Amino acid sequence: MVKVKSERRNTLPFVTLEAGQGNIYLKKEEEKMKYFREMIVMAVISLIVIGLAANFTVFADSTIGTTGGGVVNEESVEAVCDFIGICTTTPEVNLHIFSHDEVSSSIRLEGNSKADGSYREYTTIMRDKSALRFFDDDKGEVVTMKENGNVGIGKPNPQYKLDVDGTTRTKIIRITGGSDLSEQFDIGKPHNLKEYIKDGEFKIAPGMVACIDTKNPGKLLVSHKAYDRTVAGIISGAGGVRPGMLMGQTGSTADGEFPVALTGRVYCKADAMAVPIQPGDLLTTSDTPGHVMKVSDHDKAQGAIIGKAMSSLDKGKGLVLVLVSLQ
């Protein structure tokens, strides 16, 4: 509150300006008019503020600073800001920040990490072209959200919907996009392929059975003989059933081009030319490259079983749903 009071003390006119705890006494006549003018200006400003408050609306405008508006709730003592704009006079949301920089704009949240204020920490949120990036003052960029919906944690350029560089922990993972657990392997064609393929080009494809390549550690070969104890898994993706979990280590021997199902349900190429396949039958490798067949000789099948059939194939060649379980 600004209070203007006129009195006379010791027969000399003076003015008292009470603001907070300070009192100013003017004893010189030439100074009196100067302070009168200042007090009139202050009084006018006070009336403007009071008038605006009475209308329950307060606005601030600046071409280089904070602009926008707020609304005072007449039912409450507190002022509640509905819309605040920074560098915009037309905020459309609760906090609207506009930047003339076409490349980026940012917000910084900073505070003391110690009670005595000896150490300060901050987090910066930046709009960088089509990405939203979160920076920590110590760790650098920690979270990235791309325009395409990809989110990276510790990955500035996420390639997947959730791309994490580090360890994650959760109680339950529910996978709805696939039904087998696969690892990435490089897979070669059989060394003696000409003995099995007489005509046409041989292509490695989903559904083929793969075995350990004894000449190249960490790699696999398409199966090419019956009852092969080096059998390793089935290339995932046949019949529209995709991997549910895909493992590998980029840049190491534990990486490769093809996802090979080591457990779970996967469709597999099967050869029923000699013996029909029924659900529940044990399956092993056959002489047809990349194909399984029904186990007929259980002694020879020890260590060469790829899993159990979950669907049937009466004759010829085709796909059979397999529950992968190496034995």
Show the helix and strand layout.
Elements: E1 3-9, E2 12-19, E3 22-25, H1 29-54, E4 57-60, E5 66-72, E6 79-86, E7 95-97, E8 104-112, E9 120-128, E10 131-136, E11 140-145, E12 151-153, E13 162-164, E14 180-185, E15 187-188, E16 209-212, E17 220-222, E18 231-235, E19 243-247, E20 258-271, E21 282-285, E22 292-294, H2 298-301, E23 305-309, E24 317-324
Structure description:
- It contains two helices and 24 strands.
- The protein has 327 residues and is mainly beta.
- The protein has three domains: 3-54; 100-169; 180-324, Virus Head Decoration Protein, Chain: A (Beta Barrel), CATH 2.40.300.
- The strands form four sheets. Strands 14, 15, 16, 17, 18, 19, 20, 21, 22, 23 and 24 form an eleven-stranded mixed sheet that branches. The protein has a six-stranded mixed sheet with strand order 8-9-10-11-12-13, with no helix packed on it.
- A hairpin with a 2-residue loop joins strand 1 (3-9) and strand 2.
